[in-house]
Design goal:
By secondary structure, this protein is of the alpha/beta class. It contains 12 helices and 14 strands.
Length: about 350
């Protein structure tokens, strides 16, 4: 059985190559082809001999070549691309590329599915199947890097905000971020990385102990205890007030402002009282609120508030000295919200 070498460190790759009888320096050459040139076919690595290529082909494989493209959707404005990727074990996962004025960012998934069961999200419709490996997380970035080569561009930012709860796959998620941070791979700044959590406090505390300047985003979505619990069952185990306290300690340790994500659901959490309470909890904190007008999820029955309601919500937060932005919508026409494409594909397969 071939060994998949995608995601190995240069030291691990050298060890595998030497064990096979290859020269140690070949590992560095292959590493550069994979992670600096986004080439995943040994036959395209032009400074390797035919004999070495044959040996590599016989013994090793590369994950990006083993991933099948099940679905692709591109927004009409050309700014967003969403892929549904078929993994070698038959599971599927979504990843999204977004083109901003400052470059390209990728929203990656951390799990196949999700067990958080947030009421408004399509990611957890069928629960979590398994954690993604470090290599599977990194591959989501490099599949887009391969596509961007023709534009002489590459991904410069990553948000772990796709399907899954990153803190429940901590080692692989942060291992992948460390890998992408290496000068020999993407050399991506930690400040260009964001991890979004529903509020798994042990994970936030681990981030605080690690003290890397990675951006932390908290999925908050409600500040009435019963309402948040109904929208986000995780609130039963990790009460949002404790989550805010843990996030504030992270901000104080790293100097990074916390983003609190708040999805606006019509007649659910978009009232003047909701806005006032939200500002009460976050005022004087290292915090910015990212308001997200709801994407329609047919299975869930939630609706988007009117523009007037959204504007009123923002004004109340501003009046109460709470920083707030309304998320720029990208990919709305291709159902770019977490889990929507995978859920649609699953329904089609069942039929």
């Amino acid at each position: 059985m071939k060994q998949d070498i995608f995601g190995l460190t240069i030291e691990e790759l050298e060890e595998a190559f030497v064990a096979l009888g290859l020269k140690k320096f070949r590992a560095k050459q292959v590493f550069q082809w994979i992670y600096q040139k986004s080439v995943f076919d040994f036959n395209e690595m032009r400074n390797l001999s035919k004999a070495d290529i044959a040996l590599l082909e016989e013994n090793f494989c590369l994950l990006p070549k083993r991933i099948n493209l099940l679905r692709e959707q591109n927004s009409t404005d050309g700014m967003t691309s969403k892929l549904l990727l078929g993994l070698p074990d038959g599971n599927s996962v979504e990843t999204v590329l977004m083109h901003h004025d400052y470059g390209y960012s990728v929203c990656v998934s951390s799990q196949v599915g999700c067990d958080m069961h947030c009421a408004f999200c399509a990611s957890g419709l069928n629960g979590a199947v398994r954690n993604l490996t470090l290599a599977e997380i990194v591959a989501q970035v490099y599949l887009f890097n391969e596509r961007l080569k023709s534009k002489n561009a590459s991904v410069s930012r990553i948000v772990v905000m796709g399907s899954g709860e990153p803190m429940l796959n901590y080692d692989n998620v942060f291992g992948a971020l460390d890998f992408l941070h290496l000068e020999s791979t993407c050399f991506m700044s930690y400040r260009n990385m964001t991890v979004s959590t529903c509020g798994i406090i042990p994970g936030i505390k681990r981030m605080t102990d690690d003290a890397k300047p990675i951006n932390l985003a908290i999925s908050l979505h409600a500040v009435k205890m019963d309402l948040r619990t109904s929208l986000m069952p995780v609130n039963k185990g990790f009460v949002f007030t404790d989550v805010i306290d843990a996030a504030e300690k992270y901000a104080e340790t790293t100097g990074r402002e916390i983003t609190y994500e708040y999805i606006l659901l019509k007649d659910v959490n978009d009232s003047e009282e909701d806005a006032q309470l939200l500002s009460n909890f976050l005022r004087y904190k290292h915090a910015t609120v990212n308001l997200i007008p709801a994407n329609p999820v047919p299975e869930k029955g939630f609706h988007r508030p009117s523009e007037k309601t959204i504007d009123r919500f923002v004004k109340i937060l501003s009046k109460n000295k709470t920083n707030a932005t309304v998320r720029k919508e990208m990919g709305k026409d291709i159902a770019a919200a977490c889990g929507q494409l995978r859920a649609k594909f699953a329904r089609e397969q069942q039929k």
